[in-house]
Amino acid sequence: MTRNVMISIRGLQFLEDETDDNIETVQQGEYFFRNGSHFLLYEEYLEDFPEPVKSVIRIRGNELTLTRKGPLNVQMNFTQGKKTLTRYRTPYGAMTIGLDTDRVECHMTQEALCVEVDYVLEANYQYVADCTIRIEAREKGGERFDFFDENKGESEEWIGS
Q: What is the full DSSP assignment across 29-58?
């Protein structure tokens, strides 16, 4: 995969009242592979914040780390089969976030990278939602893809399985 990529991040939360909250952001970014880890770097402008949030995603085996710096500061560690705690800092205050990760799956082809993470989200030690994050990075100008489409065949490479 080339260094210049388009990154799609989709999050889905299944809330207690049985409603779904689905968000997606698509950003230009950079991809590189170093010391056994895949890295995605991108900047995102959020409403109400004049400066960008700089994000780094690191994928290694069944572990994903998302680090965000700027108006929002957090390092979220998703490790399959483990619960982690972190501080989520915003201009409005900080809170403790719990991430109880059930699944981290990563697929790779020459043109693209796809990661899915299933986890339970807690805020200040209280259950918030069951969540899924799906991250897709593909070469700029490439076609949108779906590694989890059973009709695609067996060309993808499993990472961390």
A: EEEEEETTEEEEEEEE--TT-SSPEEEEEE
What pairs with residue 85 in β-bridges? Answer: 98
Residue 106 belongs to domain with CATH number = 2.40.128.20
The helix/strand/coil state of 82 is: coil
Q: Is residue 79 part of a domain?
A: yes
Rounded-to-5 percentages of helix, strand, coil across the chain: 0, 70, 30
Q: Is the pLDDT of residue 98 over 60?
A: yes
> Tokens in use for 41?
């770097």
As a whole number of angstroms, the distance between CA 68 and CA 87 comes to: 12
Could you give phi then psi for residue 152, rounded to 5 degrees? -80, -20
Residue 125 belongs to domain spanning? 4-142
- Decide if 155 is inside a domain: no
18 or 104, which is more confident: 104
Structure tokens given for 132: 């899924």
Q: Of all residues in the chain, what percent carry a pLDDT higher than 70? A: 83
Dmax (CA) for the chain in angstroms is 47
pLDDT tens digits for range 112-123: 999 999 999 999
**Can you read off the two tokens belonging to residue 43?**
């900047």
- Write down the pTM of the prediction: 0.83
